[in-house]
Amino acid sequence: MLERIQLLRNIGQFDSVNAGAQLPFAQLTLIYAENGRGKTTLASILRSLNSGASELVLERHRLGAANPPHVVLGFAGGPIQFQNGAWPAPMPEIAIFDDAFVAANVCSGVEIAAGHRQNLHELILGAQGVVLNATLQVHVARIEEHNRTLTQKSNVIPAAARGDLSVDDFCALPADQNIDAAIAVAERNLSAGKSADAIRQHAEFLPLSLPAFDVAGLNDLLARSLPDLEAEAAARVRTHLRSLGRGGETWVGDGMARIATASEGHDHQVCPFCAQDLAASPVIRHYQAYFSDAYAGLRASINDVGQGINTTHGEEVPAAFERAVRIAGQSRTFWSAFTDVPELNVDTAAILRAWTAAREVVLTTLRAKAAAPLDRTELAQETITLITEYDAHRSVVDTISNALQACNAPIAIVKEQAAAANLAALTADLTRLQAVKTRHSDPVNAFCADYVAEKAAKTATEGQRRQARTALDNYRQNIFPAYEAAINTYLQRFNAGFRLGSVSPVNTRGGSSCSYNVVINNVAIAVTSDAGPAFRNTLSAGDRNTLALAFFFASLDQDPQLAHKIVVIDDPMTSLDEHRALTTVQEMRRLLARVSQVIVLSHSKPFLCQLWEGADPVGRQAILIRRDGAGSTLAAWDVKQDCITEHDRRHALVSAYLNAGDPAVERRVAAALRHILEAFMRVAYPAAFPPGMLLGPYLGICQQRVGQQNELLVQADIDELRAILVYANRFHHDTNAAYETEAINDQELTHFCTRVLAFAKRG
Length: 763
What we know:
Blueprint: E1 2-11, E2 14-17, E3 28-33, H1 39-51, H2 55-58, E4 70-75, E5 78-82, E6 94-97, H3 99-105, H4 114-156, H5 159-162, H6 167-172, H7 176-194, H8 196-201, H9 215-222, H10 231-244, H11 248-262, H12 284-290, H13 293-313, H14 317-335, H15 348-371, H16 381-406, H17 408-419, H18 423-434, H19 444-493, E7 499-508, E8 511-520, E9 523-526, H20 535-538, H21 541-557, E10 566-570, H22 578-592, E11 597-602, H23 605-613, E12 620-628, E13 631-636, H24 646-660, H25 666-684, H26 695-705, H27 715-728, H28 746-759
Parallel strand pairs: 3-11, 3-12, 6-10, 10-11
Antiparallel strand pairs: 1-2, 1-4, 4-5, 7-8, 8-9, 12-13
Protein name: AAA family ATPase
Organism: Tistrella arctica
Domain Protein CR006 P-loop: 250-736
């Protein structure tokens, strides 16, 4: 951001001015000066800094000054000086609207020349597009130079040495040192054509995969027990089972199934071993509760999971995986001769080791669980580690499988091409290569080498040109329609009465240009014409300046670096009607929130006052360029002394309408009603109605606070304000798309004017 003007010496009206060092600039800086005091000089200084064109400063060397111009501008990053006839570096983040912008991009007086359309083309493209266009023009110039050189070098090659071949065909034959390799390639191509059947029959890559271990499911199973088993029974049984040693629980569980068999023919349960009565046994009841149906179901679940792991991870599964890897390797060897195929580095031995280790430790854990089903446990950290190592191999296999699967699409193309191979053409190519050596003999070889080198250089440049043109065309395909829409949006906001049509790029031999029509009453008017309607005789000076402003604002909209821009606008009010002046102010206010800084220079105090009144007091500054002897100097400007508030004007307008009823101003009066109420609320309730607040949302806040300690308006005032707002909103574009054609009744308007003024008098 420009923070201050520290020194202006020997330039324009400024002799040796350093007063600006005491005048800090703000995000919005307004500079007022009468005509001829130095506004254009300041704009030219900033334009010179933007482009690096030192002549813009040098040509304004103060008449009679012995020393050259010297300028020091204070920026946030430090001072920048124009000294010894130059700036240290251009500053492209400055965007300037002034007479020079209009003359360069729109028209000179009433005429539009080719240069205007070329400059407008660059303006529409923006910095990125200008670079693309400049790159294209460099390649175009280089190709023309290549053509001249090729003509000279082709004339040196004897026609008798070429035979029936053209210069290009003759010189296109490969050099001796590459002929063997070229012949080998041709032979491989011919071999591929002859191998069409094998290519057609050979399968594409099949997916490779390894099954996973369900760690969460295993942990859930290992943690299962019998929640309904009484703690006393479980404790007694487990104490007894531990005394039996390893496998005791399984042994007792099997024995419980034999009690029924041993008890046949008895009216009581007997021991299957000694046939004693078990009715008095202190643990038999606990055994029965312990080894219940749920117990049997849990053991069955454990067995099912173990069998599932054996099925998924055992038997022929690893062998099938090894076969799949071997087949994939064979397919890679075959297809790599015809297309790019990634390496197949699968260490099946390491995978099988990790797989087996993980499988065995999981099965061991399940066996332990089967031996003591009611013991809650989980996978040991060692088991998790082995599964993780195995999963790492699974991930690698998945990656390799995906890479091989991605080759199936190119393989399909290889099959299609092999099926359509022309063996005769491939044979002819090989024959042609075998005849190459007849072309390589001195001095013809040297002539051809020169021609081929130049031809290759031209081909490379043509490729660069195509890339540059494609990049430019792609960029323009998006930017030009967006720019046309943006221009017409601004023209509509400016109430221009015309719009632009067919804004499009044009490629000419002299470079790229821009074409457009001016559309008036749905009739397209050419920008240039020797007779009949044209730009020069259909647009007024105000229209032309409005068009220039629309071009400028639209170009800013397309700038991806807009947030970093310092926008300088010099006297935008030239030839603008009053309604366009207001719109210009509104657009500048919108712009202020989107850029780093806005600097406005003007000789119109009312215009600058409008900008001042709507700006944030913290982020605004006003500067005056005043006469100082025979020159000019900078000083602080007290804007308040020159401003008459818009609220005062609106209030006077409505009051005058109530007194005189002038129908010529009734639409302005209707539009002023909402602004009067907003201004009143801004003063009456500054905390609740901050700048930018609208009446609709504010009424919602008031309604929420009715009857509360922080009440703003009583219900009667809310109802009155809402009723007035319904009427006033009919005459604003943000609440009524047809606000400009909304019918106005004098009696109704007078009624609401009276109510608005009465409301604005309340305490």
